[in-house]
Amino acid sequence: MASVLVLIPARNEARTIGPIVEEVRSGFPVLVVDDGSTDDTAAIARKAGAEVVSHSTNLRKGAALKTGFSWAMNNGYEAVITMDADGQHDPADLHNFLDTYRNRLPHFIIGKREFSKMPWSNRFANFLGSRILSRALGVRVADNQSGFRLLTRHFLERMKLRSNGYEMEVEMIGEAVRLRVPIVWVPIRTLYFSERKSGFRAFRDTLRFLHMVWHVWRERVHQERNA
Fold first, then answer.
1. Contact between residue 81 and residue 111 where contact means Cβ atoms under 8 Å apart
2. Residues 20 and 26: beta-carbon distance below 8 Å
3. Beta strand 183-187 with 108-112: parallel, antiparallel or unpaired?
4. Mean pLDDT of the chain
5. What is the pLDDT of residue 202?
6. Would the pLDDT of 215 be above 60?
7. Are strands 4-10 and 30-35 parallel, antiparallel or unpaired?
8. Domain tally for the chain?
9. Which residues contact 168 (CB under 8 A, 6 or more apart)?
10. How far, in Å, CA of 159 to CA of 46, rounded?
11. Which residue, of 35, 197, 198, 218, has the greatest Cβ tally within 10 A?
């Protein structure tokens, strides 16, 4: 079986990172990219058994993912599973990705949450965002912002990622469509914690999302015209 790394970008997640790494480590090697944390995230992750790479300042989630992807490729991994550090991704769902990877060998697997189990504002934003992106790309996008994903080495080596923020979740899907990489959706648990403060900045990140949707739509149109 090809080697699979679990990549966890994290910033100021000292409260949750330890138990997550410990659970994931029972089945997978783990890399935590500490994105400029001001707490003990890096030390706790390392103590729990993860490899840790740290940014000296906060570069945002997309930049942390790119750091992790580069590390994984340099260390010979054949696939990377990305998951969040805040506890909203259940490590028990890792096997959904692994089973699909074993059976179908797709290049891009994305976890699909149940929108009906989200708080109303998240449910509306995710539903609308997925519909908009589906129209822009001409393919069904079931969950445009899910960060629980498996990417094969073949896909990672061909992607051209330009963004550094949350909009990279959209850019990856756009790259899969541009490169004609198969996308497979797998069910994952939908977990939300009202006391957790998201790093998502509503106004700025929504504008970045819309700009990225426009970018991937333009790429699609250009590709179709030159086909």
1. no
2. no
3. parallel
4. 87
5. 52
6. yes
7. parallel
8. 1
9. 61, 62, 65, 161
10. 29
11. 35
Asked if residues 176 and 72 have their Cβ atoms less than 8 Å apart, the reply is no
For residues 56 and 145, give the distance between their C-alpha atoms in angstroms, rounded to a whole number.
26
Look up the domain containing 53 and give its range: 4-225
> SS3 for 49?
coil
Decide if 110 contacts 96 (C-beta within 8 A): no
- How long is the chain? 227
Report the pLDDT value the prediction gives residue 125, as an integer from 0 to 100: 76
Bridge partners, 109 (sequence order):
150, 184
Note every long-range contact of 211-217, with CB atoms under 8 Å and residues 24 or more positions apart, other chains counting: 211/167, 212/163, 212/167, 212/170, 212/171, 212/174, 213/132, 213/133, 213/136, 213/170, 214/136, 215/171, 215/174, 216/133, 216/136, 216/137, 216/170, 216/171, 216/173, 216/174, 216/177, 216/178, 217/136, 217/137
Both structure tokens of 93? 């769902």
- CATH number for position 17: 3.90.550.10
Q: Which pair of tokens denotes residue 125?
A: 């934003």
> Which pLDDT band, with edges at 50, 70 and 90, does 196 fall under?
low
The model's pTM is 0.86
Q: Which residues contact 89 (CB under 8 A, 6 or more apart)?
A: 83, 111, 147, 148, 188, 191
Q: How far apart are CA 221 and CA 200, in angstroms?
A: 29
